[in-house]
Amino acid sequence: MNQNLEQIVMGKGLNRHGFDMTIVEQNRTPFYYYDLDVLRTTLDEIQHQAAGHRFKVHYAVKANGNPLILKEVVNHGLGADLVSGGELKAAIEAGFMPQQMNFSGVGKTDWEILLGLEHGIGCFNVESIQELEVINQLAGECGKKADIAIRVNPDIDAHTHKYITTGTADNKFGINIEVLEHVITQARNLPSINLRGLHFHIGSQITLMQPYVMLCETINALMDHYEQRGIRFEIINVGGGLGINYIDSEHHLIPDFKQYFDTFKQRLNLRPEQELHFELGRAIVGQCGSLITRVTFVKESRNKKFVILDAGMTDLIRPALYEARHEIQNLTSIDIQTDTYDIVGPVCESSDVFARDCQLPVTRRGDIIAIRSAGAYGESMASTYNMRALPGSVFHSRK
Ligand code: LLP
Fold first, then answer.
1. Mean pLDDT for the chain?
2. Which of 16, 105, 274, 293: CA 20 to 30 A from 6?
């Protein structure tokens, strides 16, 4: 663990898991607790590892659009990766520069495209011929030229959960390599389109570098192929997807950005004038957030003990939707004895389960529980199903 982080985890007034218990006890549960020091250290590390190269990191706003998080990200000079008009508005509000915004998504509607054109965003990542034609038409009508990249489906298996893999030929994202040449020719002939680059995104929660190495090889081959035809791309965008450690978060608060950026430094034959864009979400905000919740009841059935929380799948849907694992900690019990529990929420769905057969110190009604590594795709995927209130958010920093 680096020294900065050690101070964060062990800092004064914090409990053994790094939480400020005054904040934890005083706020109404359930809520998201964001550790700004972890977020800032993460962003500093990205700046450090990506420096000195033509690397531009964009933050995938979908991971967490909380305005205070966006402000921190802007202050560290990152761009924004967007997938909706709502995210575009939030990014403008937070102070991101339109030129540093990329807009992806297979189904951009006309008003969303117009909003992007109005602000002059850096790049529309185009996912189909029809979208290309519509952007050309709308840009022409406003007397503008749209900056675009073509999203390529590289048919690479990222070996991640089936719902979050995006770069194989069978899913809806991007343009297949077989038809890429045709789409590029089309884009170069359309009067209101300025083709700037190629975009890729192979999936999320990727923890091995091998899929990224394969991506680099595919891109190298494509660049050689098109250069022989006199076509050079100004931008290569490799998307996001870098994973985080959900099992032992406290000792892995900062993802291995060095290994990640080094993979591209070493394996991608970037041309001197080219920019390399990244779109990271989870790796930036995942570890700074925890869902704080209270035990409503402890219930015993014939074979099981259930810890029933006041947070449910409406607050954090990842375990129910992807069978995702999140570390669960009892922040109040100091019992040295442990027991085995299923940790569940109050929502009327049998998938409303955070963990099965989880070992915790003996847990009682009123105890406070932290569900860790919930900064990404936690608050941003919350819903009001069962007419529940959305979870609140609380920010903590020692500085
Ligand atoms: N770029 C594009 C085009 C994307 O579709 C995504 C995520 C990202 C970048 C950022 O990926 P990241 O660095 O965060 O892995 N809700 C799921 C994850 C869905 C990811 C969707 N696309 C989860 O909770 O695991």
1. 94
2. 293
